[in-house]
Amino acid sequence: MSQHTVDLSGLASHLPGSAAGDPGDAIARGLAASAPRPTYLAVADVSKRFGDFTALKNVSLDVREGEFVCFLGPSGCGKTTLLRAIAGLDIQNSGTIRQAGRDISALPPEERDFGIVFQSYALFPNMTVRQNIAFGLENRGLRRPAVAARVDELLHLIDLSAHGHKYPSQISGGQQQRVALARALAPSPGLILLDEPLSALDAKVRLHLRAELKQLQARLGVTTVMVTHDQDEALSIADRIVVMNMGVVEQVGTPQEIYDAPASQFVADFIGAMNFVEGVMLNPDEVMVGDLTLVLRRQARPAAAGERVVVAIRPEDVRVLGADAHAEWEHVNRVAVEVAAVEFLGSHVRASLRHPAFPAKPLVAQLSQSVARALQIVPGRRLDVVLPTDRLRVYEALRPHGAAAGAVHG
Amino acid sequence: MARLRAPSMADLALGAPSAPLIRPKAGRDDRLMLAFVLMIGAYLVVSLALPLGFMLWKSAEVRAFAYGVVELQVDVGQGFLSLGTLEEAAPRLGLADPVDQARRSASLTAAQLFPDARFGERPLSAVRMRLSGGASDGVLELGGKAAASGEWVEAGPRDLRRLVLRAGTIRSLGNYIAYFSNPALTNSIVNSLVVSLSTTLITVLAAFGFAYALQRTCMPLKGLFRTIAMVPILVPSLLAGLSLVYLFGNQGLLKGLMMGSSIYGAPGIVAGCVFFTFPHAFLIIATALAISDARLFEAARALRTSPTRTFFNVTLPGARYGVISAAFVVFTLTITEFGVPKVVGGDYNVLAVDIYKQVVGQQNFAMGAVVSVILLVPAVIAFVVDRLVTARQVALLTARAVPYAPSRNRALDASAFLFCCVVAGLLLLVLGVAQYASLVKFWPYNLTLSFAHFAFEGVDGGGWESYFNSLRMAFYVAVIGTAVVFVGAYLVEKGRGFAAARAGLHFLAMMPMAIPGLVLGLAYIFFFNDRANPLNVVYGTMAILVISSITHFYTVSHLTALTALKAMDKEFEAVAASLKQPVTRVFTRVTLPVCLPTALDIAAYYFVNAMTTVSAVVFLYAPSTTLAAVAALNMDDAGQIQGAAAMCMLIFYTNLGARMVHALLSRGLARTQAWRIR
Ligand SMILES: Nc1ncnc2c1ncn2[C@@H]1O[C@H](COP(=O)(O)OP(=O)(O)OP(=O)(O)O)[C@@H](O)[C@H]1O
Ligand SMILES: [Mg+2]
């Protein structure tokens, strides 16, 4: 049902902590966490319609000064629409946008203060790299040498000093992307807007440029909003992520918050991999799944007793008894299952676990290769797993049966 | 904050108390672009919509005396005696009905009302009249001086002749009724349809064969054939008529082939129209065949489908939009064509020539307008259908198709080559005969070569003068037309906001394609020659010729510019705005340089067409602004057929030169500008 199946092999890269390989990144996050900076961009109650179709519904969010924010969501959810509203390229029907304290809601783009990079880069084909970067510096009362100096500085910044004389068609896609970024940065705007700037590049270049972009942004400290539909990209690069769906904001939070505590079933489903099983609330602390009673701890919105709910747990949170010492003496939420299938994923193994409580869709657990080997996880093997109380999440059962199928979604 | 607006459905759907509505503030660029949209829109309204509307209005206007608003009093010695209105008095005075009376004569004097200055038995001592209507009811004059509305005008027995009532106009379909009750005129409708349908059939078949041979076979000399196919575009269409006369006319070279029948009439018109419509059909069908998806042919081959079945099940359906589009274009070109039927039509009347005869021959502008409206009907229908079909083809084009590469097939290649030789030979024959005729002393009696006919002796307005006028006009049309079209297309494609104004501009830009040149010209006579129109000053000048040509060939140029602009990244303007650079700077620094080759194409198109057009200008030239193609037409009319052929060839060589300059410039751009080289 979900279009957003994610390759589990990529999961490791956005597991909490694993993305923090970059020291500058960690510092920036530390700063953001310790001393919240003032709000730079405030979007309040913004709605946008195209004819009868509502592309944005009462969207509100704040971006702090120097922050790197990603708009993340499935195709068509309104990310670009929101970005273009912020830029003044497609002005919203209602709602206000304030930048640095100034109400810019109705202003045309040339009266706002931002630099923008499009997916296509939109480099001027008949101008050299230098001329492209200089384009926004001319007509501003700057002297020629000053313009040249600034262009040199930017060329150095993007590491393309040797390519200034070339035309866009003579440099690689990754280089074009950096030129577009330099052109946007040239007049030192207060805000940088990026609409899927990396999606036109091949996977390897994309990973490299992603890190570079993050470093550059941290170094310059310029407030940045980036649109992407690639969750790996968002989780690894953003200070905070705005998850959108069908024109509404589902959740705003740090990558860790979004991953650990998805605010809605949509977010839980969209980010990372997640098991979903249906159940009925017994009381605020217990949920009935088939003939199993599961104990809960963390709940965003406590559901009333008797309410139909969806219980969610990430594959890596399913603990297999015997795999780690702590689990041995845990008896809460202990479930006896049978291995239905095993999928080999390099460093990890994905096991589908069958139980009468969720007959249609097996529970997926992710184990390290060594654990799988040690426990002889093979189809037909019976074993006990624990679903840790603090790892179980409960959502209102909004979706019709099937949409919330227990198979792994990303 | 007070809300002045009732919540709409959409607001309710949004739920939650909705935030204040935002009214986008227009920026500097918005205002500038809107100003240009309005300017170019105004140009098209004045040069197209208003004249056409005015002509339509005039075609439903009939001259009549406003009997009802004219009061009449007579004095037969005992003071004035009222006779009531003319309407009441008409039977006593023996007046015909208001329209018939106006048809006999546009003015009515008191002397006509009272012959011998008598009223009944008694001699008149004075007559008084009073007109209380408006301007359209006519004028009451005494001694040439118009009376104000409601003012009594009086004349004595001796100057009854000086009291004149001039006819006004009424709205009526009288002109249309007159048209349809005259079989000599309505015959032309059938004739026009007959020749247009025959031409369409022949041209599309020939063009399809030619295009198929070029796109789908491995025959040799494709480049040469492609060039020859374009020849008819470079000459006035009437050249085909002249050549046909020399080939099959009374003293024709190949008269024997006619076996007694005459080239004058339908056969000549069809043959001539096939000649000049051929390149148009060829280009459209060749494009359609070029984009057909190679994967379908591979599939057919894999399934071992026979070549014949492949042709009918794959080739034809793939090219069907191209064929349909070509058919409609050829049909429109033929039914609105004027040059060819004028030269070889003989007694076979067609609509376009009827307009010319009504206007130039009989000075019956109203009837010319009626025929124009009749001619507009098929032209507009064909245009609309063509646009619908083309929209579909574009949808096909954007699909991910793989171009087809033909493979060798001896029999097919040989027959394709043979076919192309025949078609190209015929095209060159038409051109060659005109060339030969223009160079011999006196056809067919003295065939020594001479340039005598290029002196254009005894030509109205001077032959060479006409030629240089044409050069000047074509130059202006190319330069001004390209600029206007390009800026207009830029605004339509890249403007932001004011969507309605841009859509309106696009609509206006598409209209000229549906308007035959003669109809546009006649509309200009009505509109610009009206003394009440302040734009009257351009009438009879070079300016009106330039305007009518720019407008007449606007649509194709507009579409060409749009295609090029659509290929440009749609975010250039957004990037520039974010960098706080005015839109004019993106336009001059990026859009224009990148689209320069297209601008050159448009200029070349405009130049060539302005050199060859007759229909758009034939009603509008003045003695000081005679044009080459019109001179050719007039020479033919005056029996100087060799002179006409010489003029056509002069135009041909000029256009050939223009195309060569165009090719050199285009190649120069591609070579010298490093960024164009991929
Ligand atoms: N100009 C427009 N007219 C009508 N509908 C539009 C227009 N622009 C966007 N939409 C619609 O609004 C919705 C949101 O579009 P938007 O471009 O913001 O999506 P997105 O989240 O950026 O998706 P993607 O990841 O595919 O770029 C889509 O359903 C789209 O069809
Ligand atoms: Mg988008």
From TrEMBL, chain A:
Domain ABC transporter: 41-271
Entry keyword set: ATP-binding, Cell inner membrane, Cell membrane, Membrane, Nucleotide-binding, Translocase, Transport
Homology family: Belongs to the ABC transporter superfamily.
Annotated GO MF terms: ATP binding; ATP hydrolysis activity; transmembrane transporter activity
InterPro entries: AAA+_ATPase, ABC_SmlMolc_Importer, ABC_transporter-like_ATP-bd, ABC_transporter-like_CS, AminoethylPonate_ABC_PhnT2, Mo/tungstate-bd_C_term_dom, NA-bd_OB-fold, P-loop_NTPase
UniProt cross-references to Pfam families, sorted A to Z: ABC_tran, TOBE_2
Protein name: Putative 2-aminoethylphosphonate ABC transporter ATP-binding protein
GO annotations of cellular component type: ATP-binding cassette (ABC) transporter complex
Species name: Xanthobacter tagetidis
Taxonomy, superkingdom: Bacteria
GO biological process: quaternary ammonium group transport
